Sequence to fold (270 residues):
Amino acid sequence: MDKIQIKNLEIFANHGVFPEENKLGQKFVISATLYTSTRKAGKTDDLTASIHYGEVSQFITKFVQEHTWKLLETVVEQLAEAMLLQIPHLEKVELEIKKPWAPVGLPLETVSVSIERGWHTAYIAMGSNMGDKKAYLDMGVLGMQLTKGCIVEAVADYLATEPYGYTEQDEFLNSVMKIRTILPPHELLDRLHELEQEANRVRVIHWGPRTLDLDILLYDDLILDDEELHIPHIEMHKRDFVLIPLAQIAPWVRHPVYNQTVQELLDRLK
Fold:
């Protein structure tokens, strides 16, 4: 991915743990690496097809001066989020904020915090087999649309399927949605659990009836396994009610473990 760099932008602002830092203020130095595609702008000489580094510099300055936080970590985290949400064509940003002559009682030149944040593509499985199933799936989609830092890009057709695992229950309505998100995986999982709770989801029987079930299937090409989360979803390659709707909106996406496309996994399952 192409990069546009802004180095050592000097800003006078009011951030710090001590009250006098918030009142009197001091100089901060910010560097930003903006990841985007410059191909179209380079071929057309059209500034609107790229990122205007002058406007971005003004954006950074205004944002940092209009807020007051104690920690550099908060400044740079909030700034990165605001940039990703408000600057067109920005796919990823690396930020470094330096605080010269930080008041630590020792002769140091500067302290700094650096982070990298960006947009990610995730696929979310949806299922319901209680009450108004379509309404619950619609609720899940709307909930993601209203989630800060998430954009719903596609939703597969709703598919009626027989129950999986525990079979003594009503048939399911299933689907998959594609989202773009700046949320890291565990924060995305927390948000999905919140949406399930809003739908009065009760976890009593494993694979049992539920008003709304939301699972992360894929998150970029990430492979993650811990106590709370498995990406890719460990059962997705075995489930036609996942692969059929996923193949409708993303047949070319490749499973990062099995190195097969979604369509190939579905054909193999059939």
